[in-house]
Each structure stands twice: as C-alpha cells, then as structure tokens.
Automatic annotation (TrEMBL):
Signal sequence range: none
GO terms (BP aspect): carbohydrate metabolic process
Name of the protein in its database record: Glycoside hydrolase family 18 protein
CDD domains tied to this protein: GH18_chitinase-like (cd00598)
Record key words, sorted: Glycosidase, Hydrolase, Membrane, Transmembrane, Transmembrane helix
Keyword Transmembrane helix part of the UniProt annotation: yes
Domain GH18: 61-352
Domain of life: Eukaryota
GO terms for MF: hydrolase activity, hydrolyzing O-glycosyl compounds
Residues passing through the membrane, by range: 6-26
Amino acid sequence: MQINRVIFVVSALIAVSLLTGFAFYYKNGASIRPDTSSQTRQQELIEAIKAKPFKSIAYVNRLAGYWPPQVILNSLGVNSKCYDIFILTFWMYGMMGDAVSVYDKPLNFIGPDVIGNTNAEIQQNLQKLYHDNGSLLFISAFGAAQNPTGFDPTLVAESLAKWVNENPYIDGIDIDYEDNDAIVDGTGTKWLITFQKVLRQKLDNKHLLITHAPQAPYFSRAYYDNGAYYTVEKEVGNTIDWYNIQFYNQGSNTYDSYESLFVESGKPFVNTSYSEIIKIDGIPAEKLILGKPAVTADATNTGYVEPAKLAQICNEGKEKSGITIPGFFIWQYSSDTSCRFYDAFTQNYKYK
Ligand SMILES: *[C@@H]1O[C@H](CO)[C@@H](O)[C@H](O)[C@H]1NC(C)=O
Ligand SMILES: *[C@@H]1O[C@H](CO)[C@@H](O)[C@H](O)[C@H]1NC(C)=O
C-alpha cells in the first residue's frame, strides 16, 4: 500500500502583434465598463472572470523560444484567442523556474524598448496586454520540481508573499503542491493549512485570487492520513478561490471515462471522481476545475482524453450525474496556441 501510494502519484505538472487597443472585454462574454484606474480595472476583470460559469485556463511552462521578444510574448499567451487565465510556472522557495523567471526579470529576456525599460514597467505592461485581451495572469508555485515541506511553511509563505508584493502585476497565485510522501503521512496537510493562512494574510493586494492545483488523488479522505485536501478545504477553503485539479498522470486511476471521472474513481485512489469529491468531501462542483494534458505528449502516463471525447464524457456527467464542471485547464499552453483543444472541447460540451 505504502509503495503503491508513492509509485502511482506521479507528479503531473512537471516538468504578436502587441495589442495597444483599450477594448475591455472578457472572452466570450459581455463587455464590461472600461476604467482609467488600472487597479479598479484589475478588480473588475478579476470579478468578471471569477463569475464566469465556465473558465478556460492554460499553464505556461515551455516557451517556443527566447528570441525575438515577440516569440516570448506569444509563448506567454498575451494574444491568445481562447484562454481566460494564463498561469506561469513555477515560483519556488529560493528559485525561479521557466516562465516565472521571465516574469521575475523580464528585462533580461524581453529587453528594453519593447514593452518597457525597467522590470517593473515591463511587468506592468505585460499584465496590461493580458487585460486588454480579456485574460488574467497568474503564477504557480512549486510544481513537481520542488517539495517545500522540509521548510517552515510560515517562512515559505512569507517569502512568496514578499515576492508578489514586490512584483505585484499579477492577478492570482496558484499553489501546485506535489509532495506526495508528506501528503501520505499527513504532515503535508498541516503544512498546507499553515502556508495558506500566512500567504493570504501577508499579501498586500487583497483582491488576488488564490487557487490550488492538487492531483485528483489528494481528495481521497480514505487514502491519506490527515484527509489531505478534504481537511485543507475544511480548514482554509474559504480563502481558496477554486481547485485546478490534475485528473491525469495517476497511473491506474485514469479519469478517462464517464465512470472513472464522474461516478467512481476506483483503486487505489478511491473516492476521487467528481461525484465522490462533491458528496464525500462536501466540496461544491463550482470549485472543481477539470485539468487535462493538452496533447498526449503533455502526459507522463495516463489521463489524456481527446477533447471532443472529453466533452462527451462531461455531457454525460451533466445528464446522468447532474454535475456541471465550472471550466477546465490544460497542461500546457505551448500545445494549444491554436486553440485546437479549447475549440473541440467547448464546441462539444453543453455546459449551459
Ligand atoms: C485577443 O487577441 C487575439 C489575437 O490578436 C484577438 O483575435 C482577440 O480578439 C483578442 N481578444 C480580446 C478579447 O480582445
Ligand atoms: C468512500 O467513501 C464512502 C463514503 O464516505 C465510504 O463509505 C467508503 O468506505 C469509502 N471508500 C473507501 C475504500 O474507503
């Protein structure tokens, strides 16, 4: 059992033309009032996207290239035709990875005279490009690259909050905690609860969204000693906006049929299908975003489903189980810059 737990929870999130217009829409929805104050504008866009009954989210890990600057901006999704939220990966305690390192020191990557001349100016204009395109910018912390449980959760949360306060041109923070051993023995659950409380408290911008990106098994009360995300939701769920759930890379738990995704997840990670998480953990469907790889190559093992088929599965979930999913995320954006996955999924899923 112990061995299974470790083997099967394979980490899942591993590894332009510049827009100058001031149109202020959110994608595929009603337009909202423009505002000259960028803070008010941010708050309005955050509220508008948060209120969308169906959100589309893309993680940005791999970039298509680092030159010329336009390639970087395109890779970050600022001119995407489809996604509502872009999540750059990964902030780590003491390190910056991949796309987050571009946001952290944009002058080193994008250079001067493109969208600004200082790091702060470029960050601010980068966020404006997303906002002009009707989308939000998030960063994600940890991922499979860092298991932070060995560090004091208060120090790690303070460090992340300090960095966000000093680099404030983002709209949300995603916590992708994947320390499987610590979740198994229960220490990870306690760590996450303290971390989340301190993070919320130390952020200057009270409007920032905070999401978590657990692997689907982490919702199994039966499997983990301290109840894992069941307990996290119970203790600090009111400070977490929603969950970006990794329903992939879980070995024999494939989450690739109506049965395994919506009715009964099966062994070893029992009780982690949609209806089981909703019923047994008491977490509302509105908080449970469906995460999938964009293409087979973005999965380490199981869980990929063709987007049109995934839509049919979700239609069954709605018709037979009465569950409407509140949106989806893909890992990762570089595989869907043309909106292939997005189009096939949203054109076939009847969420309305
Ligand atoms: C985002 O940018 C794309 C590409 O330029 C454009 O087609 C789309 O209309 C823009 N979306 C919004 C909401 O402005
Ligand atoms: C799954 O949850 C149900 C309802 O709480 C419980 O009765 C059942 O024992 C759980 N499954 C396992 C294998 O623990």
